[in-house]
UniProtKB/TrEMBL annotation:
Keywords: Disulfide bond, Glycoprotein, Membrane, Receptor, Transmembrane, Transmembrane helix. Signal peptide: none annotated. Transmembrane segments: none annotated. It comes from Spizaetus tyrannus. GO terms for biological process: regulation of neuroinflammatory response. GO terms for molecular function: signaling receptor activity. It comes from the Eukaryota. It holds the Pfam family C2-set_2. Its main location: membrane. Residues 1-93, 112-175 form the Ig-like domain. This is MOR1A protein.
């Protein structure tokens, strides 16, 4: 999320036409087209955040700026060339790293919270704990995970939680 993404088409010489057909999970479909005989590009219902990376006659790659969750979906490039028609389809999935916070609850137990990650983060404790994480889904597809550390012994001072996520792992330590 927030980065740029470039999707490439099959590289062919003597391109007659290129069409990007985009079907996002949210919102309606859009298309970007290029006709070589008229040296003309066309766009239908595409947001300003996506466009040709370079000139489509040289490189028909698609670039998406500031990728967001709403960009998730299927992206198909169709190339018409003298040697035939070629397709390439991508399924774009957006990863959202969770925000990690840690605090002490009213009973003095450490609580680890991984807010609004996509997919849901996994929370582990450095010391063994019998905690059961709770998940809360959000309308935008992100998930908040909350885990409370319950120690087997009472002489634990510093507690560390580790948040495991495809967008990167994080850890935090607290003394309650």
């Amino acid at each position: 999320i927030g980065n740029s993404c470039v999707l490439t088409c099959p590289p062919k010489s003597n391109i007659t036409m290129v069409t990007w057909k985009i079907s996002p999970k949210v919102g309606g479909p859009c298309t970007l087209g290029y006709r070589a005989d008229q040296n003309k590009t066309d766009r239908t219902n595409c947001s300003d955040s996506m466009n040709w990376k370079f000139r489509p006659d040289r490189d028909p790659a698609l670039e998406i700026w500031q990728v967001g969750i709403d960009h998730e979906g299927n992206y198909t490039c169709e190339v018409v060339a003298t040697e035939g028609n070629f397709h390439k389809t991508y399924h774009l999935t957006v990863l959202v790293p969770p925000r990690l916070t840690m605090y002490c609850d009213d009973h003095g137990n450490p609580v680890c919270k991984a807010t609004a990650g996509k997919p849901a983060a996994q929370i582990l404790w450095v010391l063994e704990s019998n905690s059961t994480p709770k998940e809360e889904g959000h309308d935008n597809g992100t998930v908040t995970v909350l885990s409370t550390f319950t120690a087997y012994s009472t002489n634990v001072t510093n507690t560390t939680c580790i948040v495991s996520h495809p967008a990167g792992n994080q850890s935090m330590t607290i003394a309650c």
